[in-house]
């Protein structure tokens, strides 16, 4: 084996090992929250970012619309790009610039926070910037409903042919986890996560039709603080749920 071939093999193995290590690694930055609620009456929404790396990184933050189609959003993210020393902490602010927003419902955005490592002086070292995304809910001041009650306002029904329908008549986004439908001891549905926007309905296919008197529905919802709250359907006639502890 000639020298060039041995060099190529060492380089290939080195990159493969680094790529595997990067796949196993976790992000070096820690966010203070898994979601942000931005009440319209507040001047800003704030997220704290901690750097648990030993070295300085570049911290890049930007906001996207939920459908990723809008380019110019009426918000500023400050700072958009900033060095963050190892062990340091940075405050990221989202500020509404005054552009018009819907007043009868929440608007959903995504805050992207990405760490960009410093360039390495070593050869054949693969470096990647790890990005984290969290939901940002912009909440108009005119909404009179209570967001804590929003999961109980969902309406659930069973359609012929084996379909479960969830409808959200309210103005808030509702994040659901662990949706389970049972008929006796048989679990016909287990959906780990889903989100219902204001006014949205969503259908879940079941393996078979089930009569309402045989069906038991349980689900969990994530509230403004990131806590998970459990619910159970109390009455298929109204389609309304109660807290599971009730």
TrEMBL record:
<feature type="signal peptide">
    <location>
        <begin position="1"/>
        <end position="27"/>
    </location>
</feature>
<dbReference type="InterPro" id="IPR013783">
    <property type="entry name" value="Ig-like_fold"/>
</dbReference>
<keyword id="KW-0143">Chaperone</keyword>
<dbReference type="InterPro" id="IPR001829">
    <property type="entry name" value="Pili_assmbl_chaperone_bac"/>
</dbReference>
<dbReference type="InterPro" id="IPR008962">
    <property type="entry name" value="PapD-like_sf"/>
</dbReference>
<dbReference type="GO" id="GO:0030288">
    <property type="term" value="C:outer membrane-bounded periplasmic space"/>
</dbReference>
<protein>
    <submittedName>
        <fullName>Molecular chaperone</fullName>
    </submittedName>
</protein>
<dbReference type="InterPro" id="IPR016147">
    <property type="entry name" value="Pili_assmbl_chaperone_N"/>
</dbReference>
<feature type="domain" description="Pili assembly chaperone C-terminal">
    <location>
        <begin position="167"/>
        <end position="229"/>
    </location>
</feature>
<keyword id="KW-0732">Signal</keyword>
<dbReference type="InterPro" id="IPR050643">
    <property type="entry name" value="Periplasmic_pilus_chap"/>
</dbReference>
<dbReference type="Pfam" id="PF02753">
    <property type="entry name" value="PapD_C"/>
</dbReference>
<dbReference type="InterPro" id="IPR016148">
    <property type="entry name" value="Pili_assmbl_chaperone_C"/>
</dbReference>
<keyword id="KW-0574">Periplasm</keyword>
<dbReference type="Pfam" id="PF00345">
    <property type="entry name" value="PapD_N"/>
</dbReference>
<dbReference type="InterPro" id="IPR036316">
    <property type="entry name" value="Pili_assmbl_chap_C_dom_sf"/>
</dbReference>
<dbReference type="GO" id="GO:0071555">
    <property type="term" value="P:cell wall organization"/>
</dbReference>
<feature type="domain" description="Pili assembly chaperone N-terminal">
    <location>
        <begin position="28"/>
        <end position="143"/>
    </location>
</feature>
<comment type="similarity">
    <text>Belongs to the periplasmic pilus chaperone family.</text>
</comment>
């Amino acid at each position: 084996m000639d020298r060039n071939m041995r060099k190529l093999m060492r380089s290939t193995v080195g990159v493969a090992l680094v790529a595997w290590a990067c796949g196993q690694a976790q992000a070096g930055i820690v966010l203070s929250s898994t979601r942000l609620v931005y009440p319209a009456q507040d001047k800003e929404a704030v997220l704290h970012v901690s750097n648990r790396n030993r070295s300085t990184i570049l911290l890049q933050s930007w906001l996207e619309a939920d459908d990723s189609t809008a380019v110019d959003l009426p918000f500023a993210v400050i700072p958009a790009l900033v060095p963050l020393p190892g062990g340091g902490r940075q405050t990221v602010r989202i500020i509404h610039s005054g552009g018009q927003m819907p007043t009868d419902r929440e608007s959903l955005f995504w805050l992207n926070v990405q760490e960009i490592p410093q360039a390495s002086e070593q050869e054949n070292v693969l470096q990647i910037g790890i990005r984290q995304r969290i939901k940002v809910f912009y909440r108009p001041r005119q909404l009179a409903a209570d967001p804590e009650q929003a999961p109980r306002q969902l309406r659930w029904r069973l359609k012929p042919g084996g379909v479960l329908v969830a409808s959200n008549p309210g103005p808030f986004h509702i994040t659901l986890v662990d949706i389970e439908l049972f008929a006796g001891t048989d679990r016909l549905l287990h959906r780990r996560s889903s989100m219902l926007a204001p006014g949205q309905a969503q259908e879940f296919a079941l393996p078979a039709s089930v009569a309402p008197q045989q069906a038991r529905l349980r689900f969990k919802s994530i509230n403004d603080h990131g806590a998970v709250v459990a619910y159970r359907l109390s009455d298929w006639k109204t389609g309304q749920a109660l807290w599971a502890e009730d």
